[in-house]
Amino acid sequence: MDRDAELDVIRRAYAKQILAACGVSNRRIEAAFASVKREDFLGRGPWQVVRWGRGYVPTPSRNPVYLYDDLVVAIIPERQINNGQPSLHAALIDSAGPQTGEHVVHVGAGVGYYTAILHRLVGHRGSVTAIEFDAELAARLAANFAGVRNISVVQGDGARVPFDSADIIYVSAGATKPAETWLDRLAEGGRLILPLTANKFPAGDVRQGAVFRIERHGADFLARRISGVAIFPCEGMRDAESEAALAAAFEKGRVHEVTRLYRRDDVPDEDCWLRGTGWSLAFR
Ligand SMILES: C[S@@+](CC[C@H](N)C(=O)[O-])C[C@H]1O[C@@H](n2cnc3c(N)ncnc32)[C@H](O)[C@@H]1O
User: Fold this and answer.
1) Least enclosed by CB within 10 Å: which of 6, 75, 113, 146?
2) Quick one: pLDDT band at residue 117, thresholds 50, 70, 90?
3) Quick check: CB of 74 below 6 Å from ligand 1?
């Protein structure tokens, strides 16, 4: 068997393993993970991978087989900017539920591995807007999707650059609150995947918290926690006041009981899990 055929088999096994690891059974997502080549996005190996308890450890060689494990892989190790854990993203993408023909906005696309998976899921009739703040990464992102008709790459702050109404807004960096544009630009029935992280247990820049799924129905926003997370901060979307509100909310527990996001802060105390300025996460 030649190297490419061998990697095809390995990629198919990897897709099965990571979906099993996060308890997701979804043939379309499995097929997307089985077909997108992680090595095409992460540059030439050997790669630095995160081994729990040991930090970054180089892969033994530049054989792409080492990328097909449920591992976080460094993009810029000095800044702890990483290609996230496959099983986490498989679970988040499953929760976002990308359908053929939809428009996905990916905020914090990095060099585009998960953007490519989202693109595979919305297909040729769909479209993806990939936004990356860091200029060097945005240039790599643009090069990785050069000539792909239905992926637009934008360098900038994903909370501020304008974009068309989105069926999915998939945020891959930790904020302390939702951006107004993310809520405004969510289409009817649209889903926002939003990591909210507090300052507790910081490891370098990385912060821990939870990922929420927010679904829009008219002026109503259904909300629920879908995962824990440790992730790089979202530039421009962190402030001390919302940070404190978030830390206090995590401290009191009951995050699994959250069902709604409100764009107001006068929700009664007994219904409120988190009260920010002008927004709340609530139990009902
Ligand atoms: C944890 S990395 C994830 C990269 C990518 N999603 C992956 O897993 O390969 C977070 C990325 O978000 C970018 N980022 C942070 N704040 C941003 C913002 N306001 N708008 C767009 N990108 C942002 C960072 O530069 C970084 O590349």
Assistant:
1) 146
2) very high
3) no
- Name which residue sits closest to atom 9 of ligand 1, judged by CA: 83
Q: Is 214 exposed, middle or buried (0-12, 13-18, 19+ CB in 10 A)?
A: buried
Write out the two tokens for 64.
């792409």
Q: Can you read off the two tokens belonging to residue 82?
A: 């990483």
pLDDT of res. 203? 64
Question: Looking at the whole model, is its pTM more than 0.85?
Answer: yes
- The string of DSSP codes covering 15-36 is HHHHHHHTT---HHHHHHHHHS
Please tell me what DSSP assigns to residue 3: H
Distance 18 CA to ligand 1 centre (A): 22
C-alpha distances in Å from residue 103, one per residue of 178, 189, 211, 237: 19, 12, 21, 23
Distance 269 CA to ligand 1 centre (A): 34
Query: Is the CB of 182 within 6 Å of ligand 1?
Result: no
